[in-house]
Amino acid sequence: xxxxxxxDVGLVHAGERIRKTDMYVELGGPDIEExxxxxxxxxxxxxxxGLINIIGPDISAMExxxxxxxxxxxxxxxxxxxxxxxxxxxRRIHEYTNYIEGFMHLNQRYDIWTRVxxxxxxxxxxxxxxxxxxxxxxxxxxxxxxxRIQITFYTDAEKISPVYIEARSAYEARxxxxxxxxxxxxxxxYGCALCQSFAPSHVCMITPxxxxxxxxxxxxxxxxxxRIDPKGPIFAIEKGECLDTEKxxxxxxxxxxxxxxxxxxxxxxxxxxxxxxxxxxGCFEGIAFYIPEVDGFGIVMRGYSAIxxxxxxxxxxxxxxxxxxxxxxxxxxxxxxxxxxKFMIADGGYSRVAWxxxxxxxxxxxCIPVTLFDKIATELDxxxxxxxxxxxxxxxxxxxxxxxTEEEESMSGEDKVRxxxxxxxxxxxxxxxxxxxxxxxxNARIYxxxxxxxxIKPKDMRKGE
Length: 465
Description:
CATH architecture of the largest domain: 3-Layer(aba) Sandwich
Largest sheet: 4 strands, mixed
CATH topology of the largest domain: Bifunctional carbon monoxide dehydrogenase/acetyl-coa synthase(codh/acs), Chain M, domain 5
CATH class of the largest domain: Alpha Beta
Low-confidence stretches: 414-436, 458-465
Radius of gyration: 24 Å
Number of domains: 3
Strand content: 15-25%
């Protein structure tokens, strides 16, 4: 199928990462404002089957080491195709392009990030036309209801703008169709295993009120995908018994997670970032991160390049959030989940959110309760956790009441058990070496009321102190 493509194409290459030192060119990514991938269903007479257009410089004309915009418009036609399938096929772009040796594709929608490695370029992988050929053949092979397909790549900064606007509009219209349904209205949820090549123990659980972490697959999209490709990576999950209404724990979700993760993940809370939070791969749109100093959450999206209030950039926290692990206080989320009434409802929802970037706060204005909007800090208000604490106190943010409650409990006597100690560690394998033995704590969560760090000086060690 791919003898006319100069590099290998196959599942074995899924999950390949191309580091900056190995990169020939980068298309899209965090430094490029306008990038997208969009699928549109058209009438048969509007699509020229097999046509691949490149508007702007092709790879061969790009300067090594540089970064370029990228738009991917896939137009499909077929008598059995419906608009509900558009978002599903967009996620297949991520899957299928990662089959290409020496080509990396990350994220989705308006966050796409791709790279071509030097080795692939030297082997004459010098055109985006090869990417189009792979997409065309695999999409037609996997989804025979696609009768015609044409693909356009945009790499010209001026030409991409009007199509980028169309793409953003299409995403919003698609998301709006999925709003209104609740998790109580349906008996079936959906799972998406598209990203297991990156995170083997991760499966996105998709419900009407909890979008896929990537922001690209709604419950309606999941239903459409499972209907047209029952054996594909998006599948139905019987909801089963609701084990915890507040936290969003369902028997069907737990059973599916255990099976699909080969026993690594046994329980999932859909509406909480603690204890058994939903796992993440690496394509999440944003991170809700716990700030223990204020007992609240910060939220940061992928496009935010500055340092957050806890002193870490998005990239650093992404390492703690992804990989299919369940890590207390690091929660991969989508923008659409932030619009849901179930958004971290078990943890307090927006009444627990203490910080977010100013542009995100404005974007979510309609979803944030009016009484809370001015009480949530941004990078324009504070730079450090200490400043954040002062800001929350001056604005009487609801988390302040939590501090007062905990302080009262700590003063009420040593014999009383405190309900919420500060988390000092949560993670996967945590090694401890002592007495000649190595102890490994699997998926450890360690809590403490107080942590004391002391330096042992050499002279103290000689005295045996």
